[in-house]
Amino acid sequence: MGTTHRDVATGAGVRVGDTHEAVTNAYGSPSLADGEMLIYYVSGSDQSESFSFSLDGGRVVEIRYYALLN
Q: Which superkingdom heads the taxonomic lineage of this protein's source (predicted)?
């Protein structure tokens, strides 16, 4: 699931429009970083759950949550 709307926030309060710095202040160093994509694996999830933040010009343009369904 994902959003590009500013009115939706993560549990840590990060929203579309926030800066790269706001993401890392809220979540720390990403599990993976690829260009303008920051990926955070959910603790204890064996990488089957993650949040990703797509950036453009250093600002969040999309937030996605991924979960592997068995």
A: Bacteria
pLDDT tens-digit profile of 6-56?
Answer: 999 999 999 999 999 999 999 999 999 988 999 999 876 678 899 999 999
Residue type, 47: Q
Cβ contact 25:31 at 8 Å:
no
Task: Give 41-53 pLDDT, tens digit per residue.
Answer: 987 667 889 999 9
**Cα–Cα distance measured from residue 53 to residue 63, given in angstroms and rounded to the nearest whole number:** 5
Give the pairing of strands 37-41 and 2-3: unpaired
For the beta sheet containing 49-56, the strands, ordered from the edge strand earlier in sequence to the opposite edge, are 2-3, 59-67, 49-56, 37-41, 32-34
